[in-house]
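Bumping with the actual sequence this time:
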Amino acid sequence: MKTLQKKLLLLLLILPISMFAQNTLKGVVLDSGSQQPLPGVNILVKGTSNGTTTDFDGNFTLNNLKKNDILILKYIGFKEVTYTYTGQDNVTITMTEDLQQLQDIVVIGYGTVKKEDATGSVSTVTEKNFVKGPVVAADQMIQGKVAGVQITNGGGAPGEGATIRIRQGSSLSGNNDPLFVIDGVPVAADNTGGRNPLASINQNDIESVTVLKDASATAIYGSRASNGVIIITTKKGKSGEMKINYSGNVSYSSIAKKVDVLSGDQLRSYVNTYGNTNQQALLGTANTNWQEEIYRDAIGTDHNISLSGGSDNITYRASAGFTDMDGILKEDNFTRATTSASVVGNFFNEHLKIEANNKTSSMRNNYSERSAIGSSLAFDPTQNIYNSDGSYFEWNQQLASRNPVALINQSHNYGTAFRSLGNIQAEYKLHFFPDLKAVANFGYDYTTGRSYGGYGYDSNYYYTNASAEYDYTNDSKNRLMDLYLNYHKDIDAIKGSVELTAGYNYQNFDYINNGGYSVNIAGVESVTPATKTGYNLQSYFARGIFNFYDKYVLTATIRRDGTSRFAPEYRWSNFPSAALAWKIDKEKFLENVSSISSLKLRIGWGITGQQDIGKLYPSLPTYLSSDNQAQYQIGDTFYTTVRPQAYNSNLKWEQTETRNIGLDFGLIKNRITGSIDLYEKRTKDLIAYVPNPAFYGFSNYDYYNIGKTKNQGIEMALEAVVVSTDDWNFTVGGNMTLQNSKVTGLIDGAPDFGISTGGITGGIDNQVQRIQVDYAPNAYYVYEQAYDSNGQPIDGVFIDRNGDGQITTDDRYFYKKPQADVYYGFYTNLSYKNWDLAMSWRGSWGNYNYYNVDSNLGWSNQILIRDTDLGNATTEVLDTNFSYSGSERYLSDYYIRDASFIRMDNLTIAYNFKNFLGSKANARLSLAGQNLILITDYKGIDPEVNGGIDNTIYPRPRMYTFGLNVNF
């Protein structure tokens, strides 16, 4: 009996313990697509603080579980998973990639917003859609990817800069480049010591590029936002075990096309036919192809390694990269070493967030002598490279072309740059008022640059003004402080939310020219004294975002900007904006329309400004001191002199007013997504550089607020997921922009007043473009060429358009323009199991170039101008044999050529390894080609020319790249 009682007592003691038993679950989390483990997945028991994260192999152990506990699994880039624990010991859980997650958040000025709540015209390109291949700058990564954004590379040199235009730009004489914001730091387009300021940021560190296009999106940046804003966000670490990534490639480049010039035999035939005895005696016996002598096949490499990881509270990422790229022009080279580091910490139950970022780069450029490109077209091909004594062959005539091989080998031009850019940002969500957040952001961008080198010419070619040696250094310092408050509150009464932001911005720019010296061939030294200049920007800004019933979103912003560039009475200005979005798909009348996934109408208005015209003090009196070559002598002493500089004390801000209406849509569960935008930009008080009246001011030209322009356009973007299965995925997308611009005002009462632009090579001070009311900015202003009955141009004969019986400047007329009527880009992404294929194209229609190569080199005087030397000409001379030397020939519409084109930018094929070389690492091997196909009727080597004047650009190479990417 006692034994039975003991057993019952023991049972009663065990029963409640077993009812509340705490169990342990072990498991692994896998990617549902690749079946690869996912490290760093956050796992939390719902309603508790009990949780863990997966290790490097995706494994986890979770203690103290009870039956029916609900586990919540979260991982960036994947859909959230809930899992119910029922007492099992081991489990395998799969997570599905959420392709929309990263695209659902849009970075805007001083914050982020859900894509569906964005009211402005905003486009984001993520790493998945970047242009592939050996790009070295952010601008190359989004080329052709965004409607309304046109990017034209300056040429084919490695690390070359680009001209970026968002919705055509807004200024005549001012800077038309967009504002770049890198991790919250607005940076100046400073080219200190380098070719491209964006090339100092390693492309492997960039997570996304967001383009703000209309004023309702950009007005928060005020005075620098007239030409749009590009926000670059770099990669950050994620919690979990440390991940190691290696990305590298090797590239091979070759010239795609050469200019058609006369061969040695053709030149001998031409000179023997048209030249005199003295000129014929100058002919050599060689057949030297000078273009082949200066160009080469080039090799480039790029390597980057990164480490990332972290705990629940602190994440980190660090990277190092090295780039070494040769250009196809001999001796040309771009070398870059970069490091980056990012740390993000969340403290006090995520009330305090501290983020620190740093990006450092050291670049070295060997600038091959680019004048050799022009000389390779103009130098006599009947001559050998070297004389019999081993010296370079040269004409003993200062006006003659130089030996292009000598130019490359005897000139040495180098540039180095060190850049450090970073910020530290603290966000504090008040404990006693958690809806209010205080943000402080302190940033900097420091650059040190050096340009040095010299020339060494043979003694038989003596050019006194050439620099035998030169060395200059300069620094730029950009310091930033942002202080602002952000209030966000969900309001049940309106089934929506209110977000308010207000703050203060301070940014200071210093430019220090440390001076330098140059020594010419004659041994005369010129010393440049050190100088320091700079300017200051200060701003107050506020924004409100009001969401009503999750259907209607209103955004209003105001920014008051001040700049030290202008006189005190014009120093400050206000830049407001407002926008409204209507989520039509949330309305009841579309509730049962399953084919419409999303549909949003946007309407925006705003005013932005411009104060960057390339001159730091355009409205303030300044003085210029002389160097040691321009001092004034009194007795035996030389004194430095000063002279007043031109200024206009009445100069004020340019202001651009923008109206935008847009429609965003998603169809068939967002298998088809796209947008359409219509915009109009009207700019007034344009700052133009125009002639001064006689006897007025300290210069013949000065800056004045005299202009008005109107830009209009339609932008369309579309992407469709055509196939999406376990094995196959096929996506196709593209964008198209239609645009038009016109000058609507210059000087009141002077409708025929114009500003000559577009300087060309050939003749004396010839300019082929003009800014005038009712025409596109910088439209071609030319003479009309006369043709014979066979359609051949008649040498020296032009149309008397005004009928006064003579050819004068009054017969010039406006003919075509450099801006495209339409430009577009389209791409495809195809994958099958572990294989993928990506292709991107872009092009333009309705743009015209002035072909300065033919106008300067395609006539007889280019060959037979003197009896002391011979030149070479393009094959155009065989077709026209022009000999007329008047400026009318240079300014003839005959040289205005259609530059429409379609280009295959990139073709990439890749294979993805799940267990690379038997390890747990994932790898990707790729083979890519750039600039493979160019379809155009344009005669020159490349129709893409910034500004429309084609004059011996650095050829864009055809490039092939082998790449390897490994994740450990």
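The tokens above came from a reply further down the thread. The longest strand covers residues 467-491.
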